[in-house]
Amino acid sequence: MTDSFSIRARLRSLRYALRGIAEMLRSQHNSRVHLGATLAVLVAGLYFRLGGVEWCLLIFAMALVWVTEALNTALELLCDVASPEFHPLVAKCKDVAAAAVLLSAIAALAVGLVIFIPYLLVGR
Question: How far apart are CA 103 and CA 96, in angstroms?
Answer without folding.
Answer: 10
